[in-house]
Amino acid sequence: MAHVLSVASSVLVGLILTVAPWTPLWEAHQWFGPHTAVRAFLTNPFVRGAVSGLGLVNLVLAAAEIHDLLRRE
Asked: Which residues have CB under 8 Å from 48's CB, separation 6+?
């Protein structure tokens, strides 16, 4: 059961990190309001790509964990 929860959380985090930086919600976040430097940094395409890259790493790790689970059975 713990492995299933681990895979599920990795997939969820991976999907969120991969997709979220490219949605309008990313730019309209309340935390960016008074901080123009933070907004400029987080809306930079390179930063968005890095966050999406972390999401893809999570998805690859989840796929590897699923592969290991299926090989054990």
From this structure: 21, 22, 26, 42
pLDDT digits (tens, 9 = 90+) for 28-52: 777 666 778 888 888 899 999 999 9
Every domain of the chain and the residues it spans: 2-6+19-72
Q: Which residue has the higher pLDDT, 4 or 53?
A: 53
CA dist 46 and 14 (Å) reads 18
| Gap between the Cα atoms of 41 and 21, Å rounded | 12
Please report which residue ranges of the chain form alpha helices under DSSP H: 2-19, 24-27, 36-42, 45-72
Please work out, in degrees rounded to the nearest 5, the angle formed at the alpha carbon of residue 23 by the alpha carbons of 17 and 52: 25
The CA-CA-CA angle for residues 24, 26, 32, to 5°, reads 120
